[in-house]
Automatic annotation (TrEMBL):
Note on how the cofactor is bound: Binds 2 Zn(2+) ions per subunit that likely form a catalytic dimetal center.
Domain Cytochrome b5 heme-binding residue range list: 1-69
Topology of this chain in the membrane: Multi-pass membrane protein
Record keywords, A-Z: Endoplasmic reticulum, Fatty acid biosynthesis, Fatty acid metabolism, Lipid biosynthesis, Lipid metabolism, Membrane, Metal-binding, Oxidoreductase, Transmembrane, Transmembrane helix, Zinc
Pfam family, one: FA_hydroxylase
Taxonomic source organism: Nesidiocoris tenuis
Family stated for the protein in its record: Belongs to the sterol desaturase family. SCS7 subfamily.
Binding, Zn(2+): H173, H178, H196, H199, H200, H254, H258, H275, H278, H279
Chief location bin: endoplasmic reticulum
The keyword Nucleotide-binding is annotated on this UniProt entry: no
Protein name: Cytochrome b5 heme-binding domain-containing protein
Necessary cofactors: Zn(2+)
Length: 315
């Protein structure tokens, strides 16, 4: 769990209100350049660099830290509250905040909503490798074409699985996670919040950045079952191995795009700025996370705003 209470002298001011940025600069989409303005009023600076509405929502969450924001009571578990937001839900999740959030009253249930990068790697990588090895063993002897060709065929199937993942990632993110739930359905609103809305509401919460292992396992079983409908078991295993490898790459990349500091000119630098714009500028574009390939192909790409300086997120 990340501590959101930071009491140091690293402060900036906005319209007379003080904000401690000692930790926030680590998450700040604009990087550590905010430290160049410690002790200053940044009101004019925000206008100079065309900050989005999301920026001001985050600022408001820092200066107005009442338990109730007019929609939900932040001192209480959120799971029983979001469903009643109705038509206010969409606007609420598009106003990100920098504050702690509790989903469930139960400590055990709350723990299930949090996933670390190490858990993702330690859980999924062995499964991916195991599927690939089992695929190799299950391939019918009469289909063997020699070690080199067998390796090539399995590599091809794994790559196919990787490509399938990138498309699955895009489709789910664009047409499921960003589908507006009916305002008249508290159940669907709550489901949407748990699936993706929570990440847009508290995008700086590293513990809820990655998909929990239990629901992810159910999705993996569904995908494998679908592969098995049109592929033999050994081929389905090889393709699924690639899909899981793609998922791990996606999760690690997603975490890095939020909390890493990529080098200027690198593809990850572009992806970080690209993903930040999805969160804080226009959530109707830029659905690709591990790649912007499908955004380009399916007309949902967004241009990254040019800057006269290089962004850096870590000192």
């Amino acid at each position: 769990m990340h501590d959101y209470t930071f009491r140091t002298s690293q402060t900036v001011y906005y319209r007379g209100n003080a904000m401690d940025v000692s930790r926030f600069c680590y998450f700040h989409p604009g990087g550590v350049m905010i430290k160049d303005h410690l002790g200053e009023d940044v009101s004019l600076l925000l206008k100079t660099y065309r900050h989005s509405k999301a920026t001001y929502a985050i600022l408001k969450s820092q200066f107005q830290i009442d338990c109730h924001d007019g929609f939900v009571d932040w001192s209480q578990p959120i799971i029983n509250q979001v469903g009643s937001l109705g038509s206010n839900y969409e606007g609420w999740i598009k106003s990100p905040v920098y504050r702690p959030l509790r989903v469930f009253a139960s400590d055990w249930m709350e723990m299930q909503t949090k996933t670390s990068v190490s858990e993702v790697i330690l859980y999924w990588v062995p499964i991916s490798i195991g599927l690939l090895l089992e695929s190799w063993d299950r391939k019918p002897t009469e289909m063997s074409t020699g070690t080199c060709l067998d390796l090539f065929l399995h590599t091809l199937l794994v790559v196919l699985g990787l490509i399938k993942w990138t498309l699955f990632e895009y489709v789910v993110h664009r047409w499921i996670f960003h589908a507006a739930p009916p305002a008249t359905s508290p159940f669907l609103i709550t489901c949407h919040f748990m699936a993706h809305g929570v990440h847009h509401k508290v995008p700086f919460d590293a513990d809820r950045l990655l998909f929990p292992l239990v629901p992810a396992s159910f999705i993996a079983l569904i995908l494998y079952s679908l592969y098995s409908l049109y592929l033999s078991s050994w081929m389905a295993m090889a393709v699924m191995s690639g899909t899981l490898a793609g998922y791990v790459i996606y999760d690690v990349t997603h975490h890095f795009l939020h909390y890493g500091s990529p080098r200027e000119g690198s593809y990850l630098y572009f992806l970080k700025r690209y993903h930040n714009q999805h969160h804080f500028k226009d959530s109707t574009k830029g659905f690709g996370i591990s790649s912007n390939l499908w955004d380009d192909l399916l007309s949902s790409s967004q241009s990254v705003d040019p800057l006269p300086f290089t962004l850096k997120w870590h000192d």
